[in-house]
Specification:
Helices cover 41% and strands 21% of the residues. It is α/β, with parallel strands linked by helices.
Length: 187
């Protein structure tokens, strides 16, 4: 099987499973990678095995496993017994220990403002995950959805770094944009 990065590059849609009932849909789909966001100590092995038996890569989100601790022994157990293709976590210590166990690591970051962006950059350089996942993935789409469903005006803010960013969120329904970069205040 191709390496993980090549596999995702070839098929960039990843099935993020939040409920066990979605497993069959993911298996039947053309995705090559599955993020398992719902699991517990009773079903984790069965779900990982099922996904892998259907020639899909599977990553376990460590922050969402019910019934297992957050210590190094959990990573050891996941590595030796469950055997996913990798893990996802927001926690630096889990990413570091998983890398020591030769698991592929994806570190998840929530980018809400310029400070979280700076922290993300510093953390990635220090922890060195194999890949990162940033959220939100597509804020203009969310603003569009919200503006259609709500009658309250929406102001977009956080990580706005260019005139194009401002235009894109205004086009999809934001009333205004809060911007920290003062050179954008003069547009």
């Amino acid at each position: 099987m191709k390496n993980i990065i090549d596999s995702i590059e070839e098929n960039p849609i990843i099935a993020a499973i939040r409920d066990e009932s979605e497993i069959e849909k993911a298996i039947d789909s053309s995705v090559s990678t599955v993020f398992l966001l719902c699991t517990d100590i009773f079903n984790i092995k069965r779900l990982v095995d099922k996904i892998k038996m259907n020639n899909k890569r599977v990553f376990i989100h460590m922050d969402f496993i019910e019934g297992l601790g957050r210590d190094h022994k959990t990573i050891d157990y996941i590595t030796q017994v469950i055997k996913p293709d990798g893990i996802i976590s927001t926690r630096n210590n889990q990413i570091k220990h998983a890398k020591e166990n030769n698991l592929f690591t994806i570190q998840r970051f929530f980018l809400i403002d310029s400070l979280s962006l700076e922290t993300t950059i510093k953390t990635v350089k220090s922890v060195k995950p194999d890949m990162i996942e940033v959220m939100p993935g597509i804020i203009p789409g969310i603003i569009n959805d919200l503006s259609k469903q709500l009658s309250v005006p929406i102001i977009a803010g956080g990580l706005v770094g260019s005139k194009e960013d401002i235009i894109s969120v205004l086009k999809v329904g934001a009333l205004g944009v809060s911007v920290g970069k003062n050179d954008l205040w003069y547009l």
